[in-house]
Amino acid sequence: MNENVSMAVVRRLPRYYRYLEELLRSGVNRISSGALSARMGLTASQIRQDLNCFGGFGQQGYGYNVEHLKSEIGRILGADDKKSAIMVGLGYMGHSIVSHIKFDKRGVTIKAIFDIRDEVVGSMVNGIRVYHTDELERICEEIKPEIGILTVPKTEAEKVSERLIRNGVKAFWNFANMDLQMKFPGVYFENVHLGDSLMTLRYRLNDRDKA
Amino acid sequence: MNENVSMAVVRRLPRYYRYLEELLRSGVNRISSGALSARMGLTASQIRQDLNCFGGFGQQGYGYNVEHLKSEIGRILGADDKKSAIMVGLGYMGHSIVSHIKFDKRGVTIKAIFDIRDEVVGSMVNGIRVYHTDELERICEEIKPEIGILTVPKTEAEKVSERLIRNGVKAFWNFANMDLQMKFPGVYFENVHLGDSLMTLRYRLNDRDKA
DNA sequence: TAGATTGTTAATCGATTAACAATC
DNA sequence: TAGATTGTTAATCGATTAACAATC
């Protein structure tokens, strides 16, 4: 057990969750930290340390029950306790996220989408209504979203996030190529900086790196 | 100067690059590690350590020339030396990536897109031709891509990456919700696990976390 | 019971921060 | 020159790994 769980540990939890799902699907009922570590490319020690931040889920001499461990990690992550989200910006990225990601499985429900283009305002995407961004305040009043999904152009990101924060949003999934954390210290930003990711990949192909 | 630069440092480089671009755009010609650290929410020490992995780009008593530092980091990342990429899978995600990301600015050029759906095969997306996946080998022969962009469903990811590796691909930008690193040890995978990212965000909204 | 494997403490490793002499 | 700020070494902090007693 551990009071303040580090970000490094938290970021590994969804990965454990995926592997446990996979194991369950292939009919494996029990697994040891050693066997799981071999599959995942970690040390058995690290897995045991990580899990013991949240409690003792295993049994000496036996290992871990896959189904039980999966459900415990799901509970820790909040997969079954849905939080409301709204998305702002229904461009390519917004559209792709909303149709591609299994929000339900991950404890998040998108309640509304906002955009400024008349072609999309009033339509439905994946069963979710698209409103004009002018209606943001009115709809937030009703929905009380805790999560904002920022799929707007960089130029709009700061303005939009400020409006959302004023309306009670506490955490952002930020796809805009911009850091907002410094501007809004009390709020959590989970950044998906695809440009940064691509540049990191590009770096690995440098010759210097191989030498 | 440093022989083996750690991943932690490399992942900060694109972020420095973004901030330097921003500074340059707003007409700032010179910056000290202290001033930059305040903007970025890092320590000045860390910035100096990071940069000195690659060389001494500053000047005592002055700081760093923004334009020079930006171009040096660009060079380190390989932004000006284009590497060939191909994309496999033109679903929502593929489409969004290809139209949204500034590959050119980041040292990567997409040379071809592959999909299996007749509706899209033969079309052009952002000036890039879409081929049937059956033609993968033939086109790879011609293009010799170093980077593979995996925007296929999870079920196809392993099969596709194996084919690409056989055809010379050395690094993947992987959007499939699956880890392939263990299966292909010599190859680099830059994973964009959006599901994991969303779950990490969801975790932060748990009450326990706030207490 | 004996073997296996956990939970947990201690040791190690690596990354971040602090300090300061060098120097522009 | 004096003040500012780097590059770099040393100190600290945190995360990972190793070890092992507890125990199923």
Low-confidence stretches of chain A: none
Beta-strand fraction estimate of chain A: 15-25%
Shape of chain A: globular
Mean pLDDT over the residues of chain A = 96
**Helical fraction of chain A:** 40-55%
Strand order of the largest sheet of chain A: 6-7-5-4-8-9-10
Number of helices of chain A: 9
Largest interface: A-B, 58 and 58 residues
Biggest pleated sheet of chain A: 7 strands, mixed
Number of strands of chain A: 10
Q: End-to-end distance of chain A, in Å?
A: 43 Å
User: What is the helix/strand order of chain A?
Assistant: HEHHEEHEHEEEHEHEEHH
Which structural class is indicated by helix and strand composition of chain A?
alpha/beta
The multimeric state of the shown protein is homodimer
Radius of gyration of chain A, whole Å: 20 Å
Q: Could you characterize the architecture of this molecule?
A:
- The structure is a homodimer of 211-residue chains.
- With 211 residues, the first copy, chain A, is an alpha/beta fold.
- In chain A, 44% of the residues lie in helices and 19% in strands.
- Chain A has nine helices and ten strands.
- Chain A has a seven-stranded mixed beta sheet with strand order 6-7-5-4-8-9-10. A three-stranded antiparallel beta sheet of chain A has the order 1-3-2.
- The longest helix of chain A is centred in the first third of the chain and has 19 residues, at 7-25.
- Chain A starts with 6 loop residues before the first helix and ends with a helix.
- Chains A and B meet through α1, α5, β9 and α8 of A and α1, α5, β9 and α8 of B.
- The structure holds a DNA duplex (24 and 24 nucleotides).
